[in-house]
Amino acid sequence: MVKVKIWGSLTEAVGSEYVEVEAKNFLELLENLKSKYPGLRPQIERGVSLAIDGKIYKQSWFTPIRTDSEVVLMPFMMGG
What does the pLDDT look like over 12-68, one tens digit per residue? Predict the structure, then answer.
């Protein structure tokens, strides 16, 4: 299981700051989150960023995630 910190407005969709799901990579994590927490589905489909061990990824579907990784799911971040 991967422990995921849910950041910002996304916590409203799950009712918690942390959740746990099975996942070996970015894509599997998102798919399992959508399945386990349907309230996250709309935001995930619009786009989210994922920080793994301090590095932010977006659409890096096969980026591996270890069970001991620090993982943070956040709304899609855009530069300006």
Answer: 999 999 999 999 999 999 999 999 999 999 999 999 999 999 999 888 899 999 999
Q: Which two tokens stand for residue 20?
A: 């746990």
Q: How far apart are CA 8 and CA 62, in angstroms?
A: 24
Report CA torsion sign: 28, 20, 51, 33.
Answer: positive
pLDDT given for residue 59 in this prediction:
82
Query: First CA to last CA across the chain, in angstroms?
Result: 35
3-state secondary structure the chain: CEEEEECHHHHHHHCCCEEEECCCEHHHHHHHHHHHCHHHHHHHHHCEEEEECCEEECCCCCCECCCCCCEEEEECCCCC
CA 12 to chain centre: 14
